[in-house]
Write a structure and sequence with these properties.
- Chains A, B, C, D: It holds the Pfam family 4HBT.
- Four copies of one chain form a homotetramer.
- Chain A is an alpha+beta fold.
- The longest helix of chain A has 18 residues, at about 60-75.
- The two termini of chain A are about 25 Å apart.
- Chain A has helices at about 5-20, 60-75, and strands spanning about 30-35, 40-45, 85-90, 100-110, 115-125, 130-140.
- The interface between A and B is medium-sized, with 33 and 33 residues.
Chain lengths: ~140, ~140, ~140, ~140
């Protein structure tokens, strides 16, 4: 189901993000691994720039990843990115510098006015959940 | 009720944040305006570096602000910063480049094992809510 | 700012709820204390019918109260009740049988398409927070 | 992986719920379909007693179902039920009287002090999501 043209299109987004001066630059090391309509899988290897003062993946960056990768999944379902109404995150385990995080985003519903998506962050080595969140957007 | 020594202490945190290579650097322009035990008020003037591709305050940065300023409020109540368990945000209005955002954080409960805090972001000119969130931390 | 006609109108709602066979019947003992445009204050004395197996206010009823009293606050702002998109609750302290709970609901924003409201449940004797939640509704 | 003794044990819980005077009585028509360690699948056919004034599954009952069925899933993983810290729900589609709702609960993490679970409600006929939520509990 993965579409290489969709991956290519979203990778162009990745390139654009790496060059932007906007806040999206903090996602410049997020690598898109696969994409299908309404589904997106990415990876990020945690570096110092991604951490809190305790040396693990910052909860604010986790929230930013959930916000943005879910938006890319909505766009991959050929819908406008819309504006956020609600975002929530549960934090289950830390991710340390050098560890690779899998980011799996899935659209739960994309309607005429509202879109809902879920994002899970997993430790690539252990498969265990680091965090999970849901994002609601107004896309009319 | 505001304590100037507490402001001074937290402003040192601000200075430290501005020099860090960690993700907290994205908060380097957040200014602490007043602090009391369990309450903290900050300001941020939105710059290009804080925005999404639509030119308004990025929802991921809003989440990061809620995550971090609530943590500073918990620390201001003389508790350890702890680790996040849950974070949620409702997004009500955009904040444009050049606009100043008031960030009001308040501890709702700081117990032996769990702390709860609420954070509101308001437009300084209009007083209207931009976003509001709640943060739960495990602090045992 | 409290409007006695609004209280009367919402008390009629209360009477209707006490007679309904729908799920809203579980709110039949919620008493409306005051109402203003977009703000509503209620009380509930916890009875056995409101509890979990541990003998304290059930988290599902807390969620139902936040869902419904926030909706009444939106209606008190002369807007349609709409449909829920997101609801969140943080649980801070238990409420025991015989204790009276104050329920304060406030509209945060009522726009053309979306409404946001916050609800706090407090112990009437101690003034301490039992729970706090936010509710987002699509009202277009 | 489904354990018939576990189903039997949880069905006893079901019987107990149907006889209780506590708020859990509102779940008396929830049928447990299968259970495994940390996973639970239930069904509910929507009746008038489960609805809002619009004639569809009440958002407060949806929240109660997510709260309780996730707790049963934590118990099925041989952990204490604990106390709620956070609950969130996104509402995607209505469920009408006469429709059967599948309720799938899954523990995301059950640690020493905190447990996290996710619950999805789906329309049995269409397979489409009605609502999804997450529940965090303190179980130490």
């Amino acid at each position: 189901m993965a579409s290489s043209s969709m991956v290519s299109k979203i990778q162009q987004l990745g390139k654009m993000l790496s060059e932007t001066k906007s806040f999206d630059r903090v996602l410049s090391k997020v690598r898109i691994v696969s994409a299908a309509k309404g589904k997106l899988s990415c990876e990020l290897t945690v570096g110092e720039e991604h951490t809190n003062l305790g040396g693990t993946l910052h909860g604010g960056l986790t929230a930013t990843i959930i916000d943005s990768v879910s938006t890319w999944a909505i766009v991959s379902a050929e819908h406008p990115p819309g504006v956020s109404t609600d975002l929530n995150i549960s934090y289950m385990r830390p991710a340390k510098i050098g560890e690779t995080v899998i980011i799996d985003a899935e659209c739960l519903k994309v309607g005429k006015t509202l879109a809902f998506a879920s994002v899970s962050l997993l430790n690539k080595d252990t498969g265990k959940l680091i965090a999970q969140g849901r994002h609601t957007k107004y896309i009319a």
